[in-house]
């Protein structure tokens, strides 16, 4: 039997009288990649932030590698959090520190020797393709690069579990791709257990072992990507299937328009990528 790396039982979170999460159960095997999807406000981020108690659950049990996270005292949380990497929606970089210093900071605070911390930070920056930007300040980097620094910061501790809370939500569409490429490479190369909250449907289809769909604070459907999006049983799943089909039609239409001959006043116009020769 596969050992449970993460187990959540009956998780609930109330903000006043509002039920943000209403009894979520979840298990992850070691090395498994699970994606949580659903409409904004359905409780996805609350679930993932409850795992290392950035959000304090109202009720329920959380076990990481058999450790009862829900019952740990505050002073016991710090060592646990070093085993769990967390990538936020916002970059949360310290603006006066370089990329390398941002990645090193948590390691140094954890008591590591500065030489060891530097080595681990440089290795993490190399994994996200930004070792050459080690001496740059955040303001000298694009949003995509800053988020990759945030990923490196989480990787520097060599975590056993990675939590991703909509890591592309703060990026414009042009920069989303570079962050997703880094995430996909980490999924392929590290074998780390991952729980990812995202709205990026094609990305989820490529990397997930399982997908969980949430609505109104509850998990309403789960299964392998092919199961979820080929024959969804929930309304949320059917809406995602509509998105997939719509995007496929859009891509086909764009390809048709790019490839078809274009004419103006009876003259054939150059195709995309062709040069116009002067008379």
């Amino acid at each position: 039997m596969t050992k449970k790396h993460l187990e959540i039982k009956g998780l609930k979170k109330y903000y006043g009288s509002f039920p943000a999460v209403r009894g979520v159960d979840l298990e992850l095997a070691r090395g498994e990649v699970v994606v949580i999807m659903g409409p904004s406000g359905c409780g996805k981020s609350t679930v993932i932030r409850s795992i290392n108690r950035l959000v304090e659950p109202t009720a329920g049990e959380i076990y990481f590698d058999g450790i009862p996270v829900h019952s740990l005292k505050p002073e016991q949380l710090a060592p646990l959090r070093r085993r769990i990497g967390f990538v936020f929606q916002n970059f949360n970089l310290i603006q006066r520190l370089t990329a390398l210093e941002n990645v090193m900071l948590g390691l140094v605070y954890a008591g590591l020797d500065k030489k060891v911390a530097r080595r681990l930070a440089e290795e993490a920056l190399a994994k996200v393709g930004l070792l050459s930007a080690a001496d740059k300040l955040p303001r000298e980097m694009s949003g995509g690069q800053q988020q990759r620094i945030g990923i490196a910061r989480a990787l520097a501790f060599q975590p056993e579990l990675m939590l991703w809370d909509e890591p592309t939500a703060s990026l414009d569409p042009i920069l989303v791709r570079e962050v997703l490429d880094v995430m996909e490479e980490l999924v392929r190369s590290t074998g780390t257990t991952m729980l990812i909250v995202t709205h990026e449907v094609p990305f989820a289809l490529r990397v997930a072992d399982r997908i969980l769909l949430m609505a109104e604070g509850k998990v309403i459907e789960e299964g392998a990507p092919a199961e979820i999006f080929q024959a969804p049983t929930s309304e949320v799943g059917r809406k995602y299937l509509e998105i997939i089909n719509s995007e496929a039609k859009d891509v086909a239409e764009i390809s048709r328009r790019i490839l078809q001959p274009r004419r103006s006043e009876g003259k054939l116009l150059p195709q995309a990528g062709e040069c116009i020769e002067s008379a």
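Residues 1-74+199-259 form a domain with the Rossmann fold fold (CATH 3.40.50.300). Residues 35 and 211 are 5 Å apart (CA to CA).
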